[in-house]
Specification:
The chain is about 40% helix and about 5% strand. It has helices at about 10, 15-30, 50-55, 70, 80-110, 115-140, 165-170, 175-195, 210-220, 225-235, 260, 290, 305-310, 320-325, 355-370, 375-385, 400-415, 420-425, 480-485, 490; strands spanning about 60, 270-275, 305, 325-330, 335-340, 350-355, 435-440, 470.
Length: about 500
């Protein structure tokens, strides 16, 4: 008999209770994963996706050795963090595929009602879509390069659980970016059609609103501005009063910027997060609070806020997000400012935010601005921004560059939530707002406590870690050697330079 913690495929789908346990197992794969086949470190979405994305950008600083390879862009086909991200994303995808095959059979055989089977499949499809999009932003060029014609990532749709399915998987190539995006949207459309607006356990489980919100993100990456607005409109995130209603449940912004992080399990702004707990978390070598927190709070202070973001002119003095969601450490080896969104120090139970209502609003605001709808764009920017900034700093009319103001707002609002690299990736070929590639980054030796000086707007003008242009092969991560050594198809489709 299999223990409940290790159900076989032959027993996992024989009762409603074991199916629910199997579904929880798929979420566990999203939250904890495995590092080098052993302890979990939050791969892919329990913490690692956030930490990796921040380290690929310039708004946080790597203070120690842990993320030096990612931060310095010295990764190889064998370096641990990028290799584990690929491996654990595909492990999650396969878990989702195994689950889908099993739950379809359970629905067909009457173990659970067909509607329940479809809802379970929809949860797994949402996770599969999320995982494939994460792969795209690290291993493939953006949609804007050739309108999606560049190599994508293998979109795994079938369970790999036998020698025959392994051979099938090894024969599958990358396809194109556009083809991968199309399949991601197909999964999210299915999730939207078959999930309740809000899951019974709310934030930690996939929902119809989560599928819609993620579609607004995906279409933003595809520069489908009208599509972004259409998705946001379904949940009221495109215009006042900026709240969902009716069949879409009660989602909206929290008045206090701290609430999505201090009340992670029950707030109206967090649409979807990955649950962690005292019993199941990324541990001391991966948890968000432990990595982003200060030693004052018993954390490892591995990632600090960059003074170049902290002091940025666009981050106005008196912004509550600096006052409440940053923590200035005065002592220790790194007397810097640290992100203070994750505070479950020692327990490591902070939930990892995947998407918040604020993001959908800003997605729609940018899309509206791109289409010349300035009033709608300004309203979206203001509803997010005005809850945090002093009245004197609020926009009463559209700023001279409304799109830039929205992009700046994203850097402040989502600091420490892993949204910086995705924005760098999608904007790299923008004619006006191009990030140019991987931005130059501050080296920890450049920083002092006095570097964090809002009054004087101190910016370190010459980051010691130089920018890497988009044309450089390091803009993308390599397909891991662990994959190409057994997969001739992907060996021949490796990213250039590796």
């Amino acid at each position: 008999m299999n223990p409940l913690s290790s159900l076989s495929e032959s027993t996992a789908f024989t009762t409603p209770a074991t199916i629910e346990l199997a579904m929880n197992g798929v979420y566990w794969s999203a939250a904890v994963g495995q590092y080098a086949g052993a302890a979990g470190r939050g791969y892919p979405f329990g913490a690692a996706s956030i930490e990796q994305a921040e380290m690929r950008g310039e708004d946080m600083v790597n203070t120690q050795a842990f993320f030096a390879i990612t931060y310095m862009a010295t990764y190889t086909t064998a370096s641990a963090n990028n290799v584990n991200h690929w491996e654990q994303l595909y492990a999650l995808i396969n878990q989702a595929n195994v689950f889908m095959a099993g739950v379809r059979t359970a629905g067909e055989s009457g173990v659970i009602p067909s509607e329940a089977a479809a809802a379970y499949e929809a949860e797994a499809r949402l996770l599969r879509a999320l995982a494939h999009h994460e792969l795209l932003i690290h291993f493939s060029l953006p949609f804007a390069d050739g309108n999606g014609s560049k190599p994508g990532v293998p979109f795994r749709e079938n369970a790999i659980n036998s020698s025959a399915s392994v051979e099938e998987g090894l024969a599958q190539g990358r396809g194109t970016v556009a083809e991968t995006y199309a399949k991601i949207l197909t999964d999210l459309d299915y999730a939207e059609s078959n999930l309740p607006a809000a899951h019974a356990t709310r934030i930690g489980r996939a929902s119809k609103v989560a599928a819609i919100a993620l579609k607004s993100r995906v279409k933003l990456h595809m520069q489908d501005w009208a599509g972004v607005i259409t998705e946001a409109a379904k949940i009221g995130a495109d215009k006042a009063p900026f709240a969902s209603s009716g069949d879409m449940g009660n989602y909206g912004l929290e008045a206090d910027v701290e609430t999505p992080f201090t009340s992670q399990k029950a707030n109206k702004e967090s649409i979807f997060s990955i649950a962690n707990s005292a019993a199941s978390n990324p541990g001391v070598n991966g948890a968000l609070a432990n990595f982003m927190g200060s030693s004052d709070n018993g954390a490892r202070e591995i990632l600090s806020t960059s003074p170049n973001l902290y002091n940025a002119e666009f981050w106005v003095k008196g912004d509550l997000r600096r006052e409440k969601l940053q923590y200035m450490q005065k002592t220790g080896g790194f007397p810097f400012s640290f992100n203070h969104k994750y505070r479950d120090f020692g327990v490591n139970g902070d939930w990892a935010p995947v998407i918040r209502y604020a993001e959908v609003i800003l997605n729609a605001a940018e899309a509206n601005a791109r289409q010349g709808n300035a009033a709608e764009a300004l309203a979206g920017l203001n509803v997010v921004r005005n809850r945090a900034v002093p009245t004197a700093s609020q926009f009463t009319s559209a700023p001279a560059d409304l799109i830039q103001a929205i992009l700046n707002e994203r850097r402040i609002e989502f600091a420490g939530e892993g949204r910086r690299w995705p924005d760098i990736h999608r904007l790299v070929l923008d004619q006006k707002y191009s990030t140019g590639g991987i931005p130059g980054k501050v080296e920890v030796s450049q920083i002092k406590n006095s570097s964090f000086d809002v009054d004087n707007g101190t910016i370190l003008p010459t980051p010691l870690i130089p920018a890497i242009p988009y044309s450089d092969y390091r803009f993308l991560w390599p397909i891991p050697a662990s994959e190409t050594q057994v997969n001739q198809v992907l060996r021949d489709q490796q990213n250039p330079g590796y």
